[in-house]
Each structure stands twice: as structure tokens, then as C-alpha cells.
Amino acid sequence: MNQYETVFILTPVLSDEQMKETVAKFKKILTDNGAEILNEETWGLKKMAYAIQKKSTGFYCLLEFKAEPSIVKTLETGYRRDEKVIRYITVKLDKYAAAYAEKRRAKLGKKEEA
């Protein structure tokens, strides 16, 4: 199993509840296909560097997971079919990126406890 990281931007016109439902939908796609979700981060509403579909802001979400390579195609098909998703990117983490992600998760975990 490979380790992946996906970031997707949701349209800013969604309510908080709709945004959470959409993130849950993509998490369900992953878990239903046998992926193990390692980390989930919601970065909130952020201003984008340039307008996409005439929108200058969007809800940013990150999912880190371990899965077989075939699952990525299924996930990205889900992104393309959902009109709430403006942009997405999924990358395979090499051993150095995976180690960095692990350190970052540990650092974020300490911040949340404080």
C-alpha cells in the first residue's frame, strides 16, 4: 500500500454542514475501497491566488491516506463528478515526504492538546 495526500477546494457558497457532508462523502469513498485514512485537516475558507470559476475563495481540505493505487482513480472520478469541488490534487508520498507528514501530524497533535 502506498501513502497519498490529497487536497481539494470546495466552492465557497456551501454552508459549514454541506462542506462537512462533502468531506465525509470522500472519506467514505476511500474507506469503502479499503483505504486507511491517516489524517484529515480542514483548513477553512481561504483566498485563492487566482479566480477559479469566477470564485476567489474556497474551502480547503486535506486527506492523508494509505491505499492501493487503483483507489486514487476512483477518488478522482468522484471529485470530477461533484460540482462542489473546484480543484483537487492527489500526490503519492515518497519515504521522505511520508516522514515529514508524520512529524507534521505529531506537531499538530501537540498543538491541539495545548
Helix content: 40-55%
- As a whole number of angstroms, the C-alpha radius of gyration is 14 Å
Main β-sheet: number of strands, strand sense, barrel status?
Answer: 4 strands, antiparallel
The order of strands across the largest sheet is 2-3-1-4
Count of individual beta strands = 4
How would the global form be characterised? globular
Could you state the order of secondary-structure elements as H and E?
EHEEHEH
Number of helices: 3
Q: What portion of the residues fall into strands of 2 or more residues?
A: 35-45%
Structural class: alpha+beta
Spatial separation of the terminal alpha carbons: 33 Å
Low-confidence stretches: none
Report on the structure:
- With 114 residues, the protein is α+β, with helices and mostly antiparallel strands.
- 43% of the residues lie in helices and 41% in strands.
- It has 3 helices and 4 strands.
- It has helices spanning 16-32, 69-81, 95-113, and strands at residues 2-10, 36-52, 55-67, 85-92.
- The chain has a 4-stranded antiparallel sheet, covered by helices on one side.
- β2 and β3 form a beta hairpin.
- The longest helix is centred in the C-terminal third of the chain and has 19 residues, at 95-113.
- The protein is globular, with a radius of gyration of 14 Å.
- The model has no long low-confidence stretch (mean pLDDT 91).
